[in-house]
Design a protein that fits this description.
Strand order of the largest sheet: 3-5-4-9-12-8-6-7
Structural class: alpha+beta
Order of helices and strands: EEHEHEEHEHEHHHHHHHEHEEEEH
Shape: globular
Number of helices: 13
Number of domains: 2
Largest sheet: 8 strands, mixed
CATH superfamily of the largest domain: Amidase signature (AS) domain
Number of strands: 12
CATH architecture of the largest domain: Alpha-Beta Complex
Strand content: 5-15%
Radius of gyration: 22 Å
Length: 451
Amino acid sequence: MGTPNSRSSFGGPFCNPYDTTRSPGTSSGGSGASVAANLVTCSIGEETGGSIHHPAKNNSLVGLAPTQELVSRQGMVGAALNTRVGPLCRTVKDAARVLEVIAGYDPKDELTAFSVGRLPSEPYRSFANERRLDGIRIGVLREHMDKKLFTDADVESIDIIERAISDLRRLGATIVDPGPGGALFQSCVDKYAPIYRNRNFIEQFPNLFPVDPNGKPASDRISQLVDMFFNPSLVPDGPTIRNMGPAPNFGQAKYMLSRYLKERGDSNIKTIRDLIDKSNFYRDIRPDAGFIDRKAALEEINSALTLDMPNLFQDRFAYQQVVLQCMAQQKLDALVSPAGNIPAYILGAPIEPPLNGRTNSVWGLLGQHGIPTLSVPAGFTTQVYDRVRDAAAPGGSRLSGPVPAKLPVGIMFFGRPFSEPMLLRLASAYEAATKQRIPPPDFGSLPEPHQ
């Protein structure tokens, strides 16, 4: 299960090999740090929000979070339907090799039935040799790069991705870019979100969709939605591709954790109640630093009494429909943006608070709805802004800096479901042309094996 900060129950906090005072990236941070430090060739990340791409970004790695239905989740502790599994490696080719092994139907994970007939006829590694991108259309998600929406902490990562987009253009890709301050998907979101995500949309704007004293609709909502479809100017400001989050987790975490414990067959820990009552919990609870009360979190999970999956499936389909429609209208093969805007933060310090859909980790919403994503090293910062505690500041912290710091930045590619071959082509061409990954100074490259 995901944790907001990088701490192991067995070994305590784990550190970023590029700066051991900083985070390697949430719940798969240890997986990422071990690859960056050359302890292993690749590792497996488990992602519910951003726990493949956050370690990839923070540790200058390749992170591949495949289509939700492509890789079995059997044997892992799932937190929600959108939990998925993927490789963290130092090269695109290695990530492709791992995907070859783990992809495909598993009768123990019913979602992988969707993968039958959708795997490529050639090995995934065969797509990781690209050098040119001629004829490929890539859309720039400016929604993730609008400096006016964010803070000084975001700026250098955005600038680095601007240079990466120029590199993609030089490789022959056709870049579809609404320009600084633009929004690639906004017109599609305005037109289609009210239809396909109407439940969320109506709840978001109660003034437009009032109810009577009995909680019944007080207006003809269907007529209102039809009017909005033909006249998107009637759609209120608010919905963007940044904030169309997944539906609430109605009992999923309890169901999946309970199922895992039962399948595991441990004689001591049989239920979530056993796990709570027989565990020693870390007591350094600092929500502003990402150290949350794990006991309280497990109690909340265990309090659920019902499982409501249809709501999440409907919401996921609706989000994918909006994304795929927007891509089809603009004839896009893939999307690109920063993997995340905020460089690795100092362990134990306040974390950057959410702002306009941006979190302190990565841009994870498309991935949370099952869209395949692949992140690649894009360079390093020269300076960073960090949060420091300040009781007089809003929220108890303020931004401080800049201070010199050479921290990894990642670029992320997004594609249609089961378009991993396209993502591997894009990532391998960019990787070969730019060679942005540099090993951490204290954990250099391994010597070549003896022939």
